[in-house]
Amino acid sequence: MNYIEVIFTLTPFEPWSDLLSSELGELGFESFLEEDGVLKTYVTKDLFNEVKVKECHTLNNDLVQVSYSYQELEQQNWNKEWESNFSPVYVEKEICVRATFHDPEPSFPYEIIIDPKMSFGTGHHSTTHLMLNSMCEIDFKDKSVLDMGSGTGVLAIFAAMKGAKPVFAIDIDEWCSVNAMENAIANGVEFIQISQGDKKDIEGLKVDILIANINRNILIHQMDAYAKAINPGGELHISGFYLEDVTMLVEEATKNGLEFAKKNSMNNWTTLKFNKL
Fold this sequence. Notes:
- By secondary structure, this protein is an alpha/beta fold.
- The chain folds into two domains: 71 residues, YebC, transcriptional regulation domain (Alpha-Beta Plaits, 2-Layer Sandwich), CATH 3.30.70; 192 residues, 3-Layer(aba) Sandwich (Rossmann fold), CATH 3.40.50.150.
- The chain has eight helices and 14 strands.
- Helix 7 packs parallel to helix 8.
- It starts with a strand and ends with a strand.
């Protein structure tokens, strides 16, 4: 599936770039890059709606000047775009996320090789960075894991590196599933069971740990399926939303028999941990 790149110029840039990113996230935009005072945003072609973009409050606020342009990215152009912007990502002193065209960094306990192509999840965005950081504290040894909305597979790959088995990774986008398989092989964890699908495809599956880095609306919609898939005493870790979304997510999780345990935030993005009662 092709993507639409929408580039916004905002004056002043802060805090409006974060507010605009939040609004665009509600419209299905999946990735955001800040570069030289502009905000580059990406959404699948089927979800791009310019009318909805123009209705964003940030674009209609007198306190900020906003202009934008957009273009459709073919797969080949998307790859070039990512390679030009993709620098290694470091999570504390534990993880280095890099592409095959970067030099190895053996000083890190975990080195994850990701060639993103048209998938999302490289560690650059605060949500992926937060999730990887949270996963450093989890004991994955011999635990069964499900990564919902797996994108590049980076979270599933890290869980597998930490000893999780079996590991399942599901994404609704076919291209993401193909890319995740390639990345799993590149990291020597080809045993990860990767598939294309959504909440209906995890019916009957039982795991000890479920991780989901998606967006607020999908998390709420799929929360019942997550709760059913987690074994008693298991854990749910979610990200892809803002601090102001925490209350409604906690309410939905609690309604489905999950107990709130922990919260972490970075640049207003947030991760939540729940325990299965």
